[in-house]
Structure prediction request, 765 residues.
Amino acid sequence: MSTLNAQPVGAPTPPDALPQTLNSGKCGMLCLIASEITFFGTLLAVYLFYIGKDPVGTPTPAEMLDVSVAPLKVVFNSIFLLTSSIWITLAVRQLARGNIKAFAVWWLLTILFGLEFLVGTGFEWYGLIAEQGFTIRTNLFGSGFYTVVGFHAAHVTIGLFLLSLVFVLTCLGKMHQRHTEKVELLSWYWHFVDGIWIVVFTIVYIIGH
Amino acid sequence: MTTLDHPGNPTRIKPTFLGRMHEWIATADHKKLGVMYVTTGLIFFLIGGLEATMMRWQLAVPGSTLLSPSDFNRLFTMHGTTMVFLVGMPILLGVANYFVPLQIGARDLAFPRLNAFGFWLFFFGGLLLYFSYFGAQGLYGMGSAPDVGWFAYAPLTERTYSRGHSTDYWILGLLVSSFGSIATGINLITTILTMRCRGMTLMKMPLLVWLMLIDAVLIMIAMPPLAAAQVMLLFDRLLGAHFFDVQGGGSAILWQNLFWFFGHPEVYILILPAFAYVSEIIPVFCRKVIFGYPLMVAATVSIGFISLGVWVHHLFALGLSPMVNTIFMGSTMLIAIPTGIKMFNWVGTMVGGKIRFDTPMLFSTGFLALFLIGGLTGIMLSVVPFDWQVSDSYFVVGHFHYVLFGGLVFSIFAAIYYWFPKVTGRMMNEALGKWQFWLLFLGFNLTFGPMHVSGMLGMPRRIYTYHADRGWDLWNLLSSIGVLVQIAGVAFFVWNVIHSLRKGREAGADPWDAWTLEWSTASPPPDYNFEEIPEVYSRRPLWDIKHPDDPDWKYE
Prediction:
């Protein structure tokens, strides 16, 4: 079937159909993020829909989340999560330059900052559940709060697992400049996890009460 | 192309049974996975058909006591769920798996292992759903299938009303298999956008590829909301959350909105592949290029967009405000325009063509007729007052079977007859195929035609029996007799497949004298698809090669 490749006389030279800017990895990751956005979008739409619809007498967002210290803690944790996005960008930049050691340092910093956020969420939940007895069963607000924040935390956990995997590989000396693109794709996922937190935070902690 | 020497395996050692099993189970090849998808889908099709047969048997005469009411509830739930998620989805993903890479001149999908992962998620999701028959009540209580209907309306699905774990099996089975669908959807989008061969610009892609691109985008956008809704329902049932628990302030209407926000795009996810198959088949069997290719593409894209904004027409009987109903009535009617464009383009392709009525073309023509009827009753149902009159009646059942059986299943049979030679290297038997078509066509209309009448006479869907004095007897009897005719048709299909696999005529690379790239390689295609990655100059690359004196690229 070599005829398939022989350019017929007079035929226009076919342009390269592959857009150079978009390779499979990037396209796949963007699609994954798009589907994640519709998933979180649904959860958040439900959360918004249920604001203020709780039966009277059950804990409200204002009571649970407005205890003067709690939101401060959350803001504190959020700053850690959001700045980790900066560190991961710096890390990828170092890897692109072939600077493995600097890459490892920024990468570890990303992991630690992400971990701090997760631990912070854990303490917040411990306070709400163990000390105040506020659970997913309490009321609609509880259902929505733990589902939305929980799914976000689950995504942070998955992200941290993948980041740690890369870090272990780095320590074993398996990461090289040629892996920049794959690591960059992972950083896109991490940016998404951070970005969606801004939306979750706005809806749950600001609009929500 | 008479003999292909594969340098990789000079001497073919006959593999053992275990070896062959291993080859299939461990495969990441898009063609093997495609075959596995379609085969599994067809097996589930027989199971779902059996469930329908039992229901029609029960409804054939008034006052029948063949099935208990709860058995009947389980049957219609499993029938609907099976046909949508375990028949329609795997077959459309399977055909896309097999032919999208071949048609765009690629050697596989973008992520082959993700592809295998997606298939196995679907497979075990389906098994999980059916395991409910054995395990839904725990070991000592034995099983019972879900009985909440395929759209599982709240609060019926809450723990208070749905005891045991049957609804949990429904949730988990579908969650698992829909994650598989999302993964494969993402895979298809990536493949189509980044792996086309040299020269295949977007507007030179075969229509199957275009339609599957939009289809995959819809899968990616519409299936995660279902997953989110199901997760919330699962939390309600297992953790005691209150999302759809009306006593705790939860909203049953919200579930309906969430489900149909997925559910209506899902209808288009199922029907776009049907459009894709006939768009490939009709031109080949009419010996003409498809009429209005750019319009077909535009219509596909606009169907994709509009389908995301029509879901409330499933909720007309709910009593939402007249304003909301009117808006969604308008958007529902709007979607008839691009769909109508497609109908006219297919008919326009047939006009003046040298039509060969081989079995694939017969089924495609059947598709046009039956889908037209389903589409027209769809427009009737989009009118709010009419919808109020026949909502949840057998009229609706008749309507969506014309769309999904007359539309999707007929086109699937067309696709199987069309591509079977490519997949197996053997032709299917024409005589058996024609028997199948006419029996199925007759039986189909006999079953689902009268449903419009019984629905207009007020027969609600999902009732397990009815009194003799309602005037529904004749129509139900006709419907049930039609099922027997359809069974005969499907039996011819099974016979044809088995017969053709063993004794079918050798097909050769290009039995239909077709024009897209899959026909340029051997039948069945080698593992690597193409020895050399092809280059294309027009929408019909094989036409250009067969007719160097008058190639398409001069006109496009």
Observations:
- The two ends of chain A are 68 Å apart (CA to CA).
- Chain A has six helices and no strands.
- The domain at 33-48+60-207 of chain A is CATH 1.20.120.80 (Four Helix Bundle (Hemerythrin (Met), subunit A)).
- The mean pLDDT of chain A is 88.
